[in-house]
Design goal:
Helices cover about 35% and strands about 25% of the residues. It is built from six helices and seven strands.
């Protein structure tokens, strides 16, 4: 069975390569705007489902397994997606400073016969951040294309005081849960 990763994330590609030797990449182009009053868990699930469905329907992948994933950062029920620019990233990081937030990652594995859904939840506490720390981080450009404006595996790792939950779900791909789900498709 051919496996297709519906993502352009280099982190998801790298992690999937640990458990699958061959796969194709076909990113899904979808509108990632939350619905008004949409709960964060519903939002992240909908994004993963829409990505899987979009890639599946592009070429009717009858003999394929499509894997789609989405991650969002949530602070006080506010969904923090990918920042549009450095100014928005700065606002996000200032909000996260000294706070505990939740990271949700949803994964959908889809074949012609069935869909398997995964929802991973983790909690991350940041140390209080100085303006200098935030600006130094923003200058790296690492905030771009990352929910909540940070990648825990890179320069922002120094912001993290504590995590609870699956580290890899914070990175954006709960590899252990995905591996277990993949076993059920063989």
């Amino acid at each position: 069975m051919k496996i297709i990763l519906a993502s352009q994330s280099p982190r998801r590609k790298e992690l999937l390569a640990h458990i699958v030797s061959e796969f194709e990449i076909e990113p899904a182009d979808i509108d990632e705007t939350p619905f008004p009053d949409e709960l964060p868990v519903d939002y992240v699930r909908r994004m993963a489902e829409e990505k899987a469905r979009t890639v599946w329907e592009q070429k009717e992948k009858k003999d394929s397994l499509v894997i789609a994933s989405d991650t969002t950062v949530v602070l006080n029920q506010e969904i923090m997606g990918k920042p549009e620019d450095m100014a928005e990233a700065e606002v996000m990081l200032k909000k996260l400073s000294g706070e505990t937030h939740t990271v949700y990652t949803a994964v959908v594995l889809k074949t012609k016969e069935r869909e398997e859904r995964i929802l991973a939840e983790a909690h991350v506490t940041f140390y209080p951040l100085t303006d200098e720390e935030i600006n130094r981080y923003l200058e790296t450009g690492d905030y771009a294309d990352k929910a909540g404006a940070y990648g825990i595996q890179n320069a922002a790792s120094v912001f993290v005081k504590e995590i609870s939950g699956d580290y890899y779900s914070i990175v954006g791909f709960p590899i252990g849960a995905v591996n277990q789900a993949l076993k059920t498709f063989n």
